[in-house]
Amino acid sequence: MRLGQTFLQNRKRTLKDLNYSTDKAKLNVSTEGYFTFYHYTYEGNIPNIMAEGLWARREVACPDPPEELFGCHLVEGFIDPLPAWLTESQYYNDLGYELTRKYIGDVLLEISLPMADFPIYIADYAHILECKMIEEEKGIGIGFEYDCSNGRECTQAYVNSYIDIHEYIDQHHAPIVQVVRLGEGIAIPSEFIEISKIQPRK
Fold first, then answer.
1. Which domain of life is it from (predicted)?
2. pLDDT digit string (tens) for 162-201?
């Protein structure tokens, strides 16, 4: 059986379950229950974000989304300002960092959300990186053996990896924060957002 099959068939199965290397970054949660994480954007988006908030435009997309995520849209972020797995992944080298340079901005926002009031998940981007690595002929990564021809398998495994933030303890190799809401709209109001004092990509 292909290694990837276990992640396609089982919701919340993780790389930690199978003894693969995972990211050891700890969640930054205050005693008041606020979770702090980071989101990169473009300079031109800042005025609108600081006035209104972060808009969830992308749908939680895969062939068979879990019931609780059906019709949800998302805003993504990182646990740390510049996660170690972006630049020195044991399986994907610095491919994650290359992708951030291509597809997301370089202005870092710091977000602190009351965990009790927002649906927050942590997903494992390793499933997406696997196919990106193969497409760019940089190696085979972990060796999930996904069919990367149309993205259906890697996106299904990615969404299957969503773990509620309250249950997350370094189970993922390439953790991505997912704040979701039903339908498009403001997922993170501006009152919870500030421009980070740390700007690793500036």
1. Bacteria
2. 999 999 999 999 999 999 999 999 999 999 999 999 999 9
Q: Which residue matches tokens 């009152």?
A: 191
The maximal CA–CA distance of the chain, rounded, in angstroms, is 51
Q: Record the tokens describing residue 112, joined without a space.
A: 């602190």
Of 131, 105, 38, whose CA–CA distance to 76 is shortest? Answer: 38
Query: For residues 96-108, b (16+ Cβ closer than 10 Å) or e, as one string?
Result: bbbbbeeeebebb
Count of other CB atoms within 10 angstroms of residue 57:
11
Helix axis angle, 152-160 to 126-135, nearest 10°:
160
In the chain, what are the domain boundaries? Answer: 3-193
- What is the token pair recorded at 192? 């919870």
